[in-house]
UniProtKB/TrEMBL annotation:
It comes from the Bacteria. Belongs to the UvrC family. InterPro entries: GIY-YIG_endonuc, GIY-YIG_endonuc_sf, GIY-YIG_UvrC_Cho, RuvA_2-like, UVR_dom, UVR_dom_sf, UvrABC_protein_C, UvrC. Residues 246-465 form the UvrC family homology region profile domain. This is UvrABC system protein C. Keywords: Cytoplasm, DNA damage, DNA excision, DNA repair, Excision nuclease, SOS response. It comes from Alkalicoccobacillus murimartini. It is found in: Cytoplasm. Interacts with UvrB in an incision complex.
Length: 591
């Protein structure tokens, strides 16, 4: 801590970025500042909300990078967040994608819905609020413009030709002029040319009526009604038809809600809602959010961006190279006010849910740490063994981060060095394998290790950690009662019971951890056992070698499905008839 204080005294009064680190030397937060000295020092002085206090409590060191301007600091901050993915920069973890309509760049183009925007020569329109809205618009255009529908050209006309939604270029000649005319009409429609298309359709309806083609006239009338229904849903309009994104925000108690309105061709078609904790000035985190927003490939920069008065418009303009405005009056200001009101409402509505979730997760691990007399266990790793009378022994490890499952860090282990039903030996092996690997890769260690078992399993884990690896990680065990439910939390050597109220969130957290690691272990063991049974049950059948067994398992997926398969289904996989009969008979013996 003294070293940290010394570093705080020599911070420069220049713009730049700072990287906060925890005791594992992991970067947990990245920020930018106009004046590094003032910003970084502010974390370690004065009072903070609970979330900032939690961040500061984990900081044991920091680095900083000086830049020559605020815009350089913003760009560097975005790149550092993308590189390190710090856990407290949660605002940037947004995997949402929106549907678009696409006209393909092919000799005979198609109209598709897609969530991926690529540089492939196609024309993209959107984004749309959801797949339903995009598909609804596509269905309307399919009724009006008979572009090709099939991905691969068939040898004969399909249903779409018979219902008038395809010109069937697979069979009949369709000229480039015909295709381009339809593409231009669709483009005009999607770029707010509804009135022109409506006028053309009305003329066609009248002509069909005059020619006594009442069925065709009715079809066009229904299409016009469908068009009116779709257009009616887009009520918020600005007459200049410019594509723009509108950013507004609200904040309270260390949380921020950002609303982004997507306006396309003057119409409000969708919004994006993001809710996250912030640790700097609200306006600065909003600017970081805007910059990061367009790093995500599903977000295409529009012609114009509207931002609230708190945002430095020149800075965002230089960063994104688009027109950035702060509306002060008129329809744009009304749109900004609407987005701001939505942000306030969303923050108010979700705040109680956030607090409940905090109580179940962050507050629960804080109280658990206090009960066990250890530092708050932000990262918990839990182990469980599984075997059937000593056969096919396996073990699994799961990770809970900030009180929630972190499934990307789950691991499966097949026991390699232990013979027979030896839970203690299995525990020693997997603990050794896990933490030797983390040491070699210089990766963060857990704050707490949870063992599904009693004093024997705890002792086995501690023996490896302390005696072999020299690690001082707290280890606890979870004992179960006669109904196989989480009963007691054990810690120490010899283990003692840590009293926890049965109705406390920290007890519920331990139950979730124990249930999850047990579920993961059982699922993995069943998979291994199934494969082992399959390998062994076919060992004595002539004509079934290792490659053929592997191919069958890959095709059928499980022994259970294979038991219900017919001889013909095995023959279809290249198995000779007599061998297929032998397989079916052998599998029936094991039923």
């Amino acid at each position: 801590m003294s070293q940290l204080k010394e570093k705080l005294t020599i911070l420069p009064d220049q713009p730049g970025c700072y990287l906060m680190k925890d005791r594992q030397d992991t970067i947990i937060y990245v920020g930018k500042a106009k004046v590094l000295k003032n910003r970084v020092r502010s974390y370690f002085s004065g009072s903070h909300d609970a979330k900032t206090q939690r961040l500061v409590s984990e900081i044991v060191d920091f680095e900083y990078i000086v830049t020559s301007s605020n815009i350089e600091a913003l760009i560097l901050e975005m790149n550092l967040i993308k590189k390190y993915d710090p856990k407290y920069n949660v605002m940037l973890k947004d995997d949402k994608s929106y549907p678009y309509l696409k006209i393909t760049n092919e000799k005979h183009p198609r109209l598709l819905t897609t969530r991926q925007v690529k540089k492939d020569g196609g024309k993209y329109f959107g984004p749309y609020p959801n797949a339903g809205a995009a598909n609804e618009t596509k269905k309307l255009l399919d009724r009006i413009y008979p572009l090709r529908k099939c991905r691969n050209m068939p040898d004969s006309v399909c249903l779409y030709y018979h219902i008038g939604q395809c010109l069937a270029p697979c069979v009949y000649e369709v000229t480039d002029e015909q295709n381009q005319e339809m593409v231009q009409e669709i483009t005009r429609f999607l770029k707010n040319g509804h009135s022109d298309v409506k006028k053309t359709l009305t003329e066609r309806m009248m002509k069909a009526s005059e020619e006594l083609d009442f069925e065709r006239a009715k079809e066009i009338r229904d299409t016009l009604a469908h068009m009116d229904a779709i257009i009616e849903k887009q009520k918020m309009t600005i007459n200049d038809h410019v594509d723009r994104d509108v950013f507004a925000f609200a904040y309270d108690k260390g949380w921020m809600c950002v609303q982004v309105f997507f306006v396309r061709q003057g119409k409000l078609i969708e919004r994006d809602v993001s809710l996250f904790p912030f640790y700097k000035e609200a306006s600065e985190d909003l600017m970081t959010f805007i910059g990061q927003f367009y790093l995500q490939k599903q977000h295409i920069k529009p012609a114009e961006i509207l931002v609230p008065k708190e945002v430095d418009t020149q800075l965002i303009h230089e960063l994104l190279e688009v027109r950035v405005l702060e509306p002060k009056r008129g329809p744009k200001k009304d749109l900004m006010d609407l987005a701001s009101e939505n942000a306030r409402v969303a923050l108010k509505e979700k705040f109680s849910l956030i607090e409940r979730d905090e109580n179940r997760t962050i507050h629960a691990i804080e109280r658990l740490g206090k009960a066990m007399d250890i530092a708050t266990p932000y990262r918990i790793e839990a182990f469980d063994n599984s075997n059937t009378q000593g056969t096919d022994p396996v073990s699994t490890m799961i990770t809970f981060l900030d009180g929630k499952p972190n499934r990307k860090d789950y691991r499966k282990y097949k026991i390699k060095t232990v013979e027979g039903p030896d839970d203690y030996g299995s525990m020693r092996e997997v603990v050794r394998r896990r933490y030797v690997r983390l040491l070699k890769e210089n990766r963060p260690m857990p704050d707490l290790i949870v063992i599904d078992g009693g004093k024997g399993q705890i002792a086995a884990a501690q023996e490896v950690l302390e005696d072999e690896l020299g690690l001082t990680i707290p280890v606890c065990g979870l004992a179960k009662d006669d109904k196989h439910r989480t009963s007691q939390l054990l810690k120490g050597s010899p283990p003692v019971v840590i009293p926890l109220a049965r109705d406390s969130q920290e007890f519920y957290l331990l139950q979730r951890i124990q249930d999850e690691v047990h579920r993961f272990a059982i699922t993995f063991h069943r998979s291994v056992r199934s494969k082992t049974f399959f390998q062994s049950v076919l060992d004595d059948i002539p004509g079934v070698g290792a490659k053929r067994k592997q191919a069958l398992l890959k095709h059928f997926g499980s022994v259970k499905k294979m038991k219900t398969a017919t001889i013909e289904e095995f023959i279809e996989q290249g198995i000779p008839h007599t061998v297929a009969e032998s397989i079916v008979d052998k599998l029936k013996e094991g039923t």
